[in-house]
Amino acid sequence: MTGRGKNWRTGMALAMFAAVAACNTRSSAPPPMLNVPAGRVCADKISTIGARAVVFDGEDPGAIDLVIDEGSTCLTGADGKKSLYQVVELPDVGAEYILSVESFQQGNSIFAPELQLLGSNGSVIRDVSHDDMMFRGTSLTALLRAKPGERYLLIRSDPQTVGLGESRVMDSIRQNGGYNAATGGTFYVYTGATTTNTMTYSHGGKLKIIVRHMPKRS
Predict the structure, then answer these.
(1) Mean of the pLDDT values across residues 78-105?
(2) How many CA atoms within 13 Å lie on the side-chain side of 133?
(3) What Å distances lie between residue 194 and 165, 167, 177, 191, CA to CA?
(4) Distances (CA, A) of 52 to 59, 66, 103, 186, 192
């Protein structure tokens, strides 16, 4: 094969590799902040049909992952504002347990959650607003004590919060070790950094729901 032929084949291989790498980069990129289109027709009542169930036997934790996106069911509130939602069927264990709802940052956006605990007939038992949740690292988390009779968890986007920004200062410490040949001992160097993490609340996002047994009293 001539040198020209080798160069042509090499160029084609590199071009194909670059194309595949570009596709992989695009597919792994986090989704942008999601809005509900103004023209979308949404229901005015919550439906528990098709609710995802959390399997929990009262001992081992149970967990499910949820993604709320443009394909999720939408709801029009009493104020006329629209939101996206999903419903989770909670375990019926006849006792209290710990319910955790965690909203993860994706790129520069994070789902703006608003929670409601519902009875078996879909009636609202109690509300958990966005203000009742707290950040743990880059995740927004709600920790609740779920009670018998609370059979469904409604997770919907909070239209009052969507589009607002959140900035959080993050501190990190790194430990680096080394060996001192002169003394025959090891040493450690600690370095720290402070960064500002900025995100925008979105109608869509990624969440994890976990149920755990109540801590045993000593």
Answers:
(1) 93
(2) 27
(3) 19, 13, 21, 11
(4) 20, 9, 17, 52, 42
Least confident residue range of 3-7, 88-92, 102-106, 131-135: 3-7
Phi-psi region of 20 (alpha: psi -120 to 50; beta: other; left: phi over 0): alpha
Question: How many residues belong to the chain?
Answer: 218
Give CA torsion, residues 74, 75, 79, 80, to 10 deg: 60
Are the CB atoms for 89 and 53 separated by under 8 Å?
Answer: yes
Under 8 Å between Cβ of 172 and 159: no
3-state secondary structure of 127: strand
CA distances from 192 to 12, 124, 171, 173, 195 (A): 45, 47, 7, 4, 10
pLDDT digit string (tens) for 18-40?
443 333 333 345 566 688 887 88
pTM, rounded to two decimals? 0.73
Between the CA of residue 88 and those of 51, 65, 153, 164, what are the distances in Å? 5, 11, 5, 26
Give the model's pLDDT for residue 125: 95
CA–CA dist 34, 57 (Å, integer): 36
